[in-house]
Amino acid sequence: MIQFNIQADSEIPASAQLYNQIQFAIASRQYPPGHRLPSTRQLAMQTGLHRNTISKVYRQLEEAGIVDAQAGSGIYVRSQGDESEARQRSPLLEQYPQAHKLVKHTLDDLLKQGCTLSHARELFLSEVDWRLRCSARVLVTAPSVDIGVGEIMLRELQESLQIPVQLVPLEELDQVLDQTRSGTVVTSRYFIGQAESIAAPKSVRVIPLDIHDYAQEIKLIKELPVGSRFGIVCLSPGFLRAAEIILHSLRGDDLIVMMAQTDDAYKLNALVKSAQTIACDQSSFAAVKAAISAAREDLIRPPKVFCSENYISSKSINLLKRELGLD
Length: 327
Description:
Layout: H1 14-27, H2 40-47, H3 51-63, E1 67-70, E2 74-77, H4 97-112, H5 117-135, E3 138-142, H6 147-161, E4 165-169, H7 173-177, E5 183-188, H8 192-199, E6 204-209, H9 215-223, E7 229-234, H10 237-251, E8 256-261, H11 265-274, E9 277-280, H12 282-294, E10 304-307, H13 314-323
Parallel strand pairs: 3-4, 3-5, 5-6, 7-8, 7-9, 9-10
Antiparallel strand pairs: 1-2
Helix pairs in contact: 1-3, 1-10, 2-3
């Protein structure tokens, strides 16, 4: 069971701390689609929060389209977009026996519903052709207020997929999709509900991306001495806000935390002069190193820089490649 940490003396409301930690667990796939979340009683015992507070957090997650509440059963992580791993098909049946079984069962079900073999074949081929058409244009989207995280995803997708990828602000996605017959929209699971609501009436696919679980970074943070000056640098203001909440949940006020966006030269310069340890993403690494180099004469001891892995998890990238027919 994932351990959630609530800092009672934090300025951040306890409900916001729990909401962001659960959202992070879902976005990083520690709680995968279909996973049953802990009961309000279990979370109350673990966190010390009132069950009404936990129920409120679950309602907020449901309203955001992140979880589904099933009466008499519990709260489950919602399956979003086109994310069934069973779609990793291959004509080499001996290499993928489970996929072969799935195709056989699906075909049996279609026949029971009255489809002929010709109709079933047409349905399969139509689906495959549609997906291939959608793969010809890939759009990554994020809200304008956090377009930085869109830029991070764009860079990582272009490097990993080796195909053109277009960044579209979420507020402009409807207009852009009106001008295309097919396409694939990808975004972080944080924004998937909004993207689906826009793309659902269009002839496009929507695929959620799972983020890196940041296990090494969290371990680093837990091991920092009390009073350490810790800096985080990122393109995305939304990422920095979420990181701040999680940091407070993990360590309370026993760390001196500084945040800076990559394009804010003033804050970045102040951060590299003060922080003992700096964590950044790969998109921000060059800017951090350049800022440290520029401030070299003012530094008694350069800060230690920890560069995290990609924002998008490698498993999610590999699945996306298969979904787009690139692997």
